[in-house]
């Protein structure tokens, strides 16, 4: 269930415990301050879960990339996570040129990024079960059948 939040924040949606925020079309030094002011309170929450929707971004400079890195750092400090969604080809190129593309988890759409937060946590998987059992089942049954 998505809903608009906060009257003063115009580019932010919630999807359960995950917040989706639209990154501005021109994500440069001039826009970074406003963006960080809007996102700041969320970055300071406990275990923030944030998706930055980059579908509108057509231009990003080093200040924009630095802001993305700062947002990621702040969420990780608070045991949260930040994911990027719908990166434009222009944004992908800049992130690759600045050698930070591998730092971020990126998804084709905001919905996919939101769903990725609901993936099974590592500690929910029994450590006593062999890794192959999920794919092949019990190998004794396979051997007996052959």
Verbal overview:
There is one protein chain. The protein is α/β, with parallel strands linked by helices and 146 residues long. It has one domain: STAS domain (Transcription Regulator spoIIAA). Helix content is 40%, strand content 20%. The chain has 6 helices and 8 strands, in the order E-E-E-E-H-E-E-H-E-H-E-H-H-H. The chain has helices at 29-43, 62-77, 89-97, 110-116, 133-136, 139-145; strands at 2-4, 12-15, 18-22, 26-27, 49-53, 59-60, 81-85, 105-107. The strands form 2 sheets. It has a 6-stranded mixed sheet. Strands 4-6 form a two-stranded parallel ribbon. A hairpin with a 2-residue loop joins strand 2 and strand 3 (18-22). Helix 1 (29-43) packs parallel to helix 2. The longest helix is centred in the middle third of the chain and has 16 residues, at 62-77. The termini are far apart. The model is unreliable at 1-10 and 122-127 (pLDDT under 50).
> If you average the pLDDT, what whole number results?
80
Give the overall shape.
globular
Helix content: 25-40%
- Would you identify the CATH architecture? 2-Layer Sandwich
In the residues, how many domains can be counted?
1
Pairing-aware structural class of the strands and helices? alpha/beta
C-alpha termini separation: 49 Å
For the record, the CATH class is Alpha Beta
Number of beta-strand segments: 8
From N to C, what is the helix and strand string? EEEEHEEHEHEHHH
Give the radius of gyration: 19 Å
Please mark out the parts with pLDDT under 50 across 5 or more consecutive residues, or reply none.
1-10, 122-127
CATH superfamily: STAS domain
The main β sheet shows up as:
6 strands, mixed
Q: Note the total helix count.
A: 6
What fold name stands as the CATH topology? Answer: Transcription Regulator spoIIAA
Query: Order of strands side by side in the largest beta sheet?
Result: 1-2-3-5-7-8
Query: Beta fraction of the residues?
Result: 15-25%
